[in-house]
Amino acid sequence: QLVESGGGSVQPGGSLRLTCIFSGSTDCIAWFRQRPGMDRERVARIVPDGGSISVAEFARPRFTITQDNAKNTVYLQMNGVKPEDTAMYYCAAVRPGGFCSTKPAVYDYWGQGTQVTVS
User: Fold this and answer.
1) Phi, psi of 116, rounded to the nearest 5 degrees
2) What does the alpha-carbon distance between residue 104 and residue 98 come to, in Å, rounded to a whole number?
3) In a structure prediction context, what are the per-residue pLDDT tens digits for the chain, which is 119 residues long?
4) How far, in Å, CA of 118 to CA of 75, rounded?
5) Whole-angstrom Cα distance, residue 51 to residue 66?
6) What is the DSSP letter of 95?
7) Are the C-beta atoms of 45 and 58 separated by less than 8 Å?
8) Cα(51)–Cα(28) distance, rounded to whole angstroms?
9) How far is 71 from 7, CA to CA, in rounded Å?
């Protein structure tokens, strides 16, 4: 199970921190976003045990992904947000033994999403 929080309305140039609390084991957790009228795209991902991280080019260096394994939590820190960052943001995870991918279909578990609006 994945539960996101932290979305909201923010002015351009502002910051938000999204939180994803997960239960169970996984080999990859990712943040995706879906902007109005567009496909879901991966923003960043992290391998919980090894800490390997990847951030989409459009998000660098403004966004960072971190984890707190003790709390089973993954964060997406969003700095310097832009109007084009307006989207529904989702946390997603793969089953144990799975692998990271930019493709949403690879992910087995999804949160309900949290809306980010920049204006």
Assistant:
1) -120, 125
2) 13
3) 899 999 999 999 999 999 999 998 999 999 999 999 999 999 999 998 777 999 999 999 999 999 987 878 999 999 999 999 999 999 999 999 999 999 999 999 999 999 999 99
4) 19
5) 8
6) P
7) no
8) 10
9) 19
